[in-house]
């Protein structure tokens, strides 16, 4: 029995696994100001204040406890001050459960055009109209406060892959200095939390130093950054074979940007509690459905007269009321309903996967299933 500080009355139960391969897997509950998060948890991505092609109440029916928003996008449009004036992101998007916002550094590096990294922060030109912005540990933390995020992410630098040891070392040290400034800028309130993000690329001594620097700052949770950046599953798992153990056992561990079902299962087995990934939503809009029979590319002509559902026992509207033939047609003619139904099914599929993982852990059963 351990409790997570700052998340009130946390009932997190670390259930060690009998089977040594799973001894690091744990199921728990994070209590926040906006409700409970059952872990291991998958967070659908709602980058611009909406999970694309979904109503928030539909996202809720899939079983999601928490969704992710992005500081970078929301600061550009509609602007954090405006969202604050309009009552905060929860009210703005009509989502009353927990919201986690990424801190923006990663998105700047992947989206904005000209940008300059200084000790102060990142200066960049908006990818929308080229206007000049600056993101720093202080401004990112303030923006996430204005948005009303339940879980605020520290402002970090996502170390690219591959990086030399020296590059990874100086990047990690910058992230540690920025984490300190992020922590200082955080307005601490009961039921809200701020997560530090460890870097260090694939170098275990750098990962250790990053963890030690951030543990000193006593964050409410910790994310492992700098993975799912092209290193591949084998190298990712190699880092995950030791990195989660560097983090406090009684606090949530969040693996950013991951991933496919097999990645999630392998990461849970190595002690990860929280995930976010655009795969179910983005691939759904592109006509890929995750099913227990494997990934179905619905645009394939073999489905044009297939009068059966994606999965006969799935409770999502796509499976309950429609056939693969109809989904094939909708996606081919680019009807909006096609994106909606495929997204809804994939989000339901990912949440069912997490539910099964949580149940198997709670029952002390192995969960090697690739669902
Ligand atoms: N793969 C990812 C995805 C999102 C990230 N966000 C931040 N802030 N930092 C990282 O290292 C990330 C890595
Ligand atoms: Zn379905």
Question: How would you describe this structure to a colleague?
Answer:
It is a single chain. By secondary structure, this protein is α/β, with parallel strands linked by helices. It has helices at 56-61, 71-76, 80-85, 89-93, 105-111, 137-147, 165-185, 204-215, 233-240, 261-268, 279-285, 317-321, 324-332, 336-362, and strands spanning 28-32, 35-39, 41-43, 67-70, 99-102, 115-117, 122-125, 132-135, 151-153, 193-198, 221-224, 253-255, 274-276, 288-291, 294-297. The strands form four sheets. Strands 3-13-12-11-10-9-5-4 form an eight-stranded parallel sheet. Strands 6-7-8 form a three-stranded antiparallel sheet. Strands 1-2 form a two-stranded antiparallel ribbon. Strand 1 and strand 2 (35-39) form a beta hairpin. The longest helix is centred in the C-terminal third of the chain and has 27 residues, at 336-362. The chain is globular. The chain binds 2,6-diamino-3H-quinazolin-4-one and zinc ion (ZN).
